[in-house]
Amino acid sequence: MAGKVFFSVSMSLDGFIAPESVSELMGRQWVELQAWMFPLRFIRENLSLGEGGKGGRDNDIVRETFERTGASVMGKRMFDAGEQMWPENAPFHTPVFVVTHEKRDPWERLGGTTFHFVNDGIEPALDQAREAAGDRDVRIAGGGATILEYLSAGLIDEFTIALSPVLFGSGIRLFEGVDAARVALEPLHAEPTDRVTHLSYAVRKR
C-alpha cells in the first residue's frame, strides 16, 4: 500500500517559513525559527554532532517524521542552499528527488542519501519518489514554492506545522498564493510543547 504525501515545516507566527534571500539562510531570523530543533537528541544524532541533546516530545516528533519518510522531494532553491550547508553525510538517508531544469547525474552522499534530478515537473518527481518510498511516506521537503505547487495541485495528503514564537515581518510565506478554492483542511492534532506548537492537518479537495 502506498504511503502518504506530506510536508512538515517550522513557521513563524506571522506565516513565514524562510527568509527571502538564500544568503540569509542560517541568519538570525532563520536560526530563531529553527531554535526548537537544534538542541534535540535526534538532530544531533542525525547530523553526527555527538552524544547528548534534549529528549521529550519535540524529539519524538522529529524522529517520527524521519522514520515515516521513505523518500523526499525538493525544489532547486532548497537544494542549492543545502548543497552548500549539508554535511557529507546528508541528513535525509533516503532518495531525494530534486525538481529542476538542470540536467545532472545522481549525486550520492554518505548514509544512504542520493539526490536525483527530475526535469519534467512535480508529478513525475512525485511518481519516482513514491516508487522509491515503497509503503513509507513521501515528504515534500521544500522550499515554500515547491510545497505550494504540490498543495495547490491537490497532491498533499497531510501536513504539520511547528508554529514557532518568532516574527519575521517579511520573507517567504508558506501559503502565499495558494489555490484556496481547491484546498480544504481537516484538523488532526494540536500539541503544544515548551518551544513550539505542532499543528497537523489532513488536506481535502473542496
From TrEMBL:
Domain Bacterial bifunctional deaminase-reductase C-terminal: 4-197
UniProt-listed GO biological process terms: riboflavin biosynthetic process
UniProt signal peptide: none
Coiled-coil regions listed: none
InterPro entries associated with the record: DHFR-like_dom_sf, RibDG_C, Riboflavin_Biosynth_HTPR
GO MF: 5-amino-6-(5-phosphoribosylamino)uracil reductase activity
Domain of life: Bacteria
Protein name: Dihydrofolate reductase
